[in-house]
Specification:
Elements lengths: L1 H29 L11 E4 L8 H12 L8 H9 L4 E9 L3 E8 L2 E5 L3 E4 L4 E3 L11 E3 L5 H15 L6 E6 L5 E5 L4 E5 L3 H17 L5 E5 L5 E6 L10 H5 L6 E4 L13
Parallel strand pairs: 1-3, 4-7, 7-8, 10-11
Antiparallel strand pairs: 2-3, 4-5, 5-6, 8-9, 9-10, 11-12, 12-13
Helix pairs in contact: 2-3, 4-5
Length: 271
């Protein structure tokens, strides 16, 4: 008898579970919980959005809201809003009886990345298409998977060059793993792929003395030497300009400076 009771209880539990699954489907098909009976009348979007286009958010969410309180697909609505420019995170939820709330977190840009993208303060890459980008941000480039390394070297370089008054305008990591630093003065610093921080530290210590008695701008510094580095100065009156390629046509011959810790000026192999 106990076994029969247990079997009956299991059957009833299964039937109840099936009803709970099927009832919402039937209700939607029959219109019992459709938009006409349980409409969403209010759409709330959080304040404080500076970059996200609120009108586009409304346009994106409206088709979902029109399905009504019970039939609205919150997950799909979140997916659609998350694809909009500058959206870092989004939460869509409903409040009884007729409110749909959308809460959006914006990307906070930290640097330009390559062509047409930005790097956020959280290390996420996102499209800069159709948005106004502040011009004062540093410019980065490199493999997407190594964005954290690019940011790390940027922060280290800032600390190294700050005492001498030079700012870091950009950091580039090429496909071969070789680093290039651009200073705010326009100087390009070729670092190479090995011992990047050590080479930068050595150069940053000597830079104020190297430029102290020069009237020409320093166009390029090549640190890819074992015991020293090479400097290239722009010709008088021409300046560095905005394009390294254009400037390179007017550069004076390079000069090699030895490592202050070693009297041997012979360059080693470039790396």
């Amino acid at each position: 008898m106990n076994q029969a009771f247990a079997t009956t209880a299991r059957i009833l539990a299964w039937l109840l579970a099936l009803a709970l699954v099927a009832l919402p489907v039937v209700a939607v098909m029959k219109g019992w919980i459709g938009a006409e009976r349980w409409p969403l009348r209010v759409l709330r979007i959080n304040d404080g959005l500076e970059q996200v286009d609120v009108a586009r958010v409304r346009e994106t969410v409206l088709p979902h809201a029109q399905r009504g309180f019970f039939a609205v697909d919150l997950v799909q609505a979140q997916r659609d809003v998350s694809r909009l420019p500058w959206v870092a995170g989004v939460e869509v939820r409903k409040r009884w009886p007729d409110v749909l709330e959308v809460r959006i977190g914006e990307h906070v840009p930290f640097a330009r990345w390559g062509e047409g993208r930005l790097l956020s303060t959280r290390g996420r890459l996102f499209s800069a298409e159709g948005v106004e980008v502040p011009g004062a941000m540093p410019r980065f480039d490199g493999p997407d998977a190594r964005a954290n390394e690019v940011v790390a070297l940027y922060n280290e370089a800032r600390e190294l060059f700050r005492p001498s008054g030079f700012e870091i305008a950009g950091v580039v990591l090429d496909a071969r793993g070789s680093w290039l630093i651009r200073l705010s003065s326009g100087t390009e610093v070729l670092v190479g792929s090995q011992e990047a921080k050590l080479r930068l530290a050595r150069f940053a210590r000597m830079l104020p003395r190297l430029v102290a008695n020069r009237t020409e701008p320093l166009a390029r510094a090549d640190l890819r030497y074992t015991n020293g580095f090479a400097l290239v100065w722009a010709k008088p009156g021409l300046g560095i300009g905005d394009s390294g390629l254009e400037t390179a046509l007017h550069l004076s011959p390079p000069q090699t400076f030895p490592n202050p810790q070693s009297p041997i000026p012979n360059p080693g192999s470039n790396t």
